[in-house]
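PROTEIN–LIGAND DATA SHEET

This sheet pairs a single protein chain with one bound small molecule, pyridoxal-5'-phosphate, given as SMILES. Inputs appear in the order they were entered. The predicted three-dimensional arrangement of chain and ligand is reported afterwards as a token string under its own label.
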Amino acid sequence: MLNRINDRVKDISVPRIRIFANKVAQFENGINLTIGEPDFSTPELVKKAGMTAIQNNLTGYSHNAGLLELRESVANFFEDTYHFRYDPETEIVITIGASEGIDAVLRTILEEGDEVIIPAPIYSAYVPIVHLEGAKVVYLDTSATGFLPDPEKLEGLITEKTKAVILNYPSNPTGVTIPKERLDKIVDVLSKHEVFVISDEIYSENTFSGQHHSFAAYPELRNKLFLLHGLSKSHAMTGWRIGYVLGAKNLMEQVLKVHLHNAICASLPSQFAAIEALENCRDTPKEMNKAYIERRDYVQNRLRKMGLDAIQPTGAFYIFPSIKNINVSSLEFAEQLLEKEHVAVVPGSGFTKYGEGFIRISYANSLENLKEGLDRMENFIASIK
Ligand SMILES: Cc1ncc(COP(=O)(O)O)c(C=O)c1O
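PREDICTION REPORTED AS:
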């Protein structure tokens, strides 16, 4: 029956991250530097809130948009931290991680033949969903502009067919954040055109110096913006599956329909845990950032000594060094490193072809593992040079 499966689904390939993570797990002494999740535990208070909900039989469905109390916590979090407010009654939907938010928003807006502009290299989850909807991705190459979109180039790509622009800062895979001046210029471009802006700011709390700047803070984007967010990264809650989408009322009414027919609602015990995270554990990411900064500096230093340059990450927990001075593709590099030294990294080409010539290392890992992984990488590089 395979011939009767949707061709667009058959065309989707398994993300490279998973392939390398699965392979390294087969080696007893394997070091996995592909991991896109914090190596910390969910805060105790949050775990307790989830357990209490289960013990109290709060295990049913919630409102399709999520518990109002959680939506209020989300609204208050953004208002207190970033000084913009979305109405918890009508402008926030709690999703099953940011992933379901990405899916719900793209399925709400896309039609066959639409174009979606995506700066690249970029996180690999957006593209397959765009393709599933019969829409086309138009890439904005950022590899020569510090992994940040050039506002003029962005404007040059917008056509009548452009339905949306997807942005992700702090960035997976590059770790760059977007400076306010650049943000202002991009907002100027976006506000002039009738295109949706989908801003995935899931790493906002993992900003290492100064404050994260949100696209959602610009009133001129209010009628076209979807903010994607969640607790997976900030509170080490990847398995709880809580995300949220924020947007203008008339748009969110449409997103809610897609979400409810797909998911009904996010897990209820997880929603209670999420309230605790947003209300009483706001400093959790700050603690994690201290560790990330120490590891980032260690990793970048070691890479530099191996002759691998990387833009200094200012957010998330990834570093994206260039391997262009080594004469292999990023896929060959990752495959051989895995085979010879049992260390897994993600080839840059896993983040579109614009990531070729780079590898992604996640430093959401202990200093001990990072040291061992980098020692082995050093051996590997010496052996192939
Ligand atoms: C940029 C980005 N957006 C969304 C997600 C998915 O997050 P969630 O666990 O909330 O679905 C990830 C996970 O790696 C990510 O890197």
